[in-house]
Amino acid sequence: MILIALYITIAMVTLAALLNVYRVIKGPDAPDRVLALDTLYVNAIALIVLLGITLQTRMYLESALLIAVMGFVGTVAMAKYLKRGSVIE
Amino acid sequence: MSTFAEYAISALLLVGGAFTLIGAIGLARLPDFYTRLHGPTKATTVGVGAIVVSSVIYFSTLGRGIGVEEILITAFLFMTAPVSANFLAKAAMHLEVKTTENTRGQTWDQ
Amino acid sequence: MLDRLSFPQPWLSLTLFVTWQFLSDGLSGGSVVLGLILAWGIPQMTRGFWPDRPAVLRGWRAPAYALRVLWDIIVASVEVAKLILSPRKPRPMFICYPLELDHPLAISILVSTISLTPGTVGADVSDDNKLILIHSLDAEDEQEIIDTIRARYEKPLLEMFR
């Protein structure tokens, strides 16, 4: 039963990622694209955790943690760049 | 694994997936940037949180211990989602992103 | 010189140390040494970013606040989900919220809470820390939202950061 739920969930998260890609392409402004990329990061974390459950391993969780950290830093850097025109002043 | 744990894990997975999808739908169909900001900060964060909690339950019922990484991921996501939303809103106000016509109230930029 | 050897943020140092032990698969000699180095180094490197005033925190009130916020987050995401899936147009509104809090940490906790709870995203704090700008996804009445936030989140935070 868990396997069926797992497959449905993976399908839903993949669809969500595709919708985010649509928003990245469509824009219309730079903040929209950054927001969509940030959501894409979060979806990637969900997919990695789901992959870990499917393969019954916890090895991938560390990469999920890294993606969480990098995604946050990337989003903040992009937002700062959009506001100030530079990341490190 | 007990039947109850199986039901709980499946339900959490489905709820998490549904919230993640709803967050993405909101990102795709809401009219302007500020309204789009709401989907990812709330629905997606809760959705991924539910998926990660189901992973914690799954591995602990398999007898592999409580996953500390999962808890760290959840805590990190819940702490960072509002901060990045705030930064993006500031950037959008600076760039004077368009709002939908029925928005009331004013932005400011300083 | 002695200043450089101290732990300016003892709680931050403790959190870093414990987190590092969890991350590195259990206690071992190496992880303890590296954890101690991190617990000393990171607060030293970031000390310039911390506000001078130490937080006077009534810590025993924090768990109740965290539980309330956690529950509100779940309610909030259900509400946002309903609004996203319904065909009706949202009624967005920018609201200026006059702050009573003045501690920087308390303000940042309040803004984060607002961002995670029903229909509102905290957008900006004014330079003099007196006003915050809130974007509400589906607002009927400005005053109602301000009153809810004041009663539900700002009052407990005022109690904590006296």
Structural class of chain A: mainly alpha
Order of helices and strands of chain C: HHHHEHEEH
- Provide the structure class of chain C: mainly alpha
Number of helices of chain C: 6
The low-confidence runs of chain C, each spanning 5 or more residues with pLDDT under 50, are none
Largest interchain contact: A-B, 50 and 53 residues
SSE blueprint and pairings:
The complex is a heterotrimer of chains A (about 90), B (about 110) and C (about 160).
Chain A: H1 2-26, H2 30-55, H3 61-84
Helix pairs in contact in A: 1-2, 2-3
Chain B: H1 3-29, H2 33-36, H3 38-61, H4 68-95
Helix pairs in contact in B: 1-3, 3-4
Chain C: H1 2-5, H2 10-23, H3 29-45, H4 62-85, E1 93-98, H5 104-116, E2 120-125, E3 131-136, H6 142-160
Antiparallel strand pairs in C: 1-3, 2-3
Helix pairs in contact in C: 2-3, 5-6
Write up this protein:
The complex is a heterotrimer of chains A (89), B (110) and C (162). In chain A, 84% of the residues lie in helices and 0% in strands. By secondary structure, chain A is mainly α. Chain A has one domain. The mean pLDDT of chain A is 87. Chain B has 110 residues and is an all-alpha fold. Helix content of chain B is 75%, strand content 0%. Chain B has helices spanning 3-29, 33-36, 38-61, 68-95. In chain B, α1 packs antiparallel against α3 (38-61). With 162 residues, chain C is mainly alpha-helical. Helices cover 56% and strands 11% of the residues of chain C. Chain C has helices at 2-5, 10-23, 29-45, 62-85, 104-116, 142-160; strands at residues 93-98, 120-125, 131-136. Chains in contact: A-B, B-C.
